[in-house]
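Hello,

Following up on my earlier ticket. Below are the two sequence lines again, exactly as submitted.
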Amino acid sequence: MKLPGIPAIPASEITPRELFYQRRHFMQLALGGSTALIAGAAFGGEKLASSLSEAYGLTDKLTPLEDVSQYNNFYEFDTGKEGPAKMAGRLKTRPWTVSVEGEVRKPKQFAIEDLLKLAPMQERIYRLRCVEAWSMVIPWLGYPLAELLKQVEPTSEARYVEFVSLHDPEQLPGQRRAVLEWPYREGLRIDEAMHPLALLTFGLYGEVLPNQNGAPVRMVVPWKYGFKSAKSIVKIRLLKQQPTTSWMQAGPSEYGFYANVNPEVDHPRWSQAKERRLGEFLKRPTLPFNGYAEQVAGLYAGMDLAKNF
Amino acid sequence: MTVNWKALDDTRLRRLKPLVFLAALLPLGLLLTAAWQDQLGANPIEKITHNTGYWTLTFLLISLGVTPLRQLSGANWLVRLRRMLGLFAFFYACLHFSTYLVLDQFFDWSAIAKDILKRPYITVGFAAFVLLILLAVTSTNAMQRRLGGKNWKRLHRLVYPIAAAGVVHFAWLVKKDLSRPLLFGGILVLLLALRWFYKIKSARLRRSYSSI
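Thanks for your patience. The regenerated structure is below:
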């Protein structure tokens, strides 16, 4: 699959798959018991088959798995960066169902096993830009959310999609505190949700998602700040009206519905002009729509992006 | 032989001081060890910034805690550790500011100027740091004599707004979870309340003496 305007990366730039995973295993061995223990507790290391979709390759250097799985914002576990990986063992990802409902002709409850088989799994390397001005590059595994939405046949009234994450303080101890209004809710406009870049995601680095990264199923919307990509999703609702998300409720002047990555529009308390790519020393300039402007800028033609932040 | 902790003599205090000095360096030692062992996590610069900021606030609160603790315990010699503790607050503030200047911004002066002018949490943090320099510079015996006890005392009351600014700096930068800045803020309020309580108490005592 090749989208217009996305330069396919030259074959010479792609690390051969075997090498890529050898390096990962080497790192695991090198880091020895402690890492293996953490990794073992957090995710079974279950492999996910996929095909690398070249259209979504990036020449950016990948953020190592250790960083991707040990530096997380997942307030349902803990508000610190390293807490989620420590707490994530409590989350049970089987059995798991995702209910797709609302403005659809065929509402349905999908078992996670069925979701995994619903469409061919692709590996896509995306940049992730957090609203806190740091970023990563992650090889995700998933397929476009559009594949799932097509199955339930949205009605013509469906203009927005809401994602609801799991609410269970037993498994998600961070929910005992009202840091945000639980369950975590996020949303997209229907055309954003149907965009081929919007990925329904089940894995990273060739394996099922570590719990602290949003297992067993999450969204990845690479042109928006990270918090827009809901984790551990249990419900997807198609709506007529724009939903109010958890972050909009928490700080209406700081977090808008769109939350597109935009170096021109600062967070009221800090600048968004630059970001620190984890592993790099100097900050790099943040790109409009996180570098995906060619593919998605058209969705916002004529909109005032400073107002619709 | 038991040590009388209320009235520590000069010899004992002289022995205690280096121990306090070393203990105050421990946070830096741990940070450097973590850096050496590559244990600073995925975002080391953020971790160093947060760590040095945390210890700045902690030493500010410890030095503010000296007087209430002295009054509660009657151990007057504690006040002779106060300057060192205050200077350690300044020391960690310097590390915190250098981390921002060198590691975080890498001397990007225009970005730094914008930050100081436009970002309220950086504005208050920077203002607190500048005032803290003033206190550190005037902390010597010679400066104390030059300024005169009364003026010196008045100047060094700036430590209260500095500590408050530090707490506000912390509270304004967290995204959502205010629990830690509120903890620091709560301790600061408690320490100020204790001072106020002892001030009133001693004023009453003075009045009752003068009426005898």
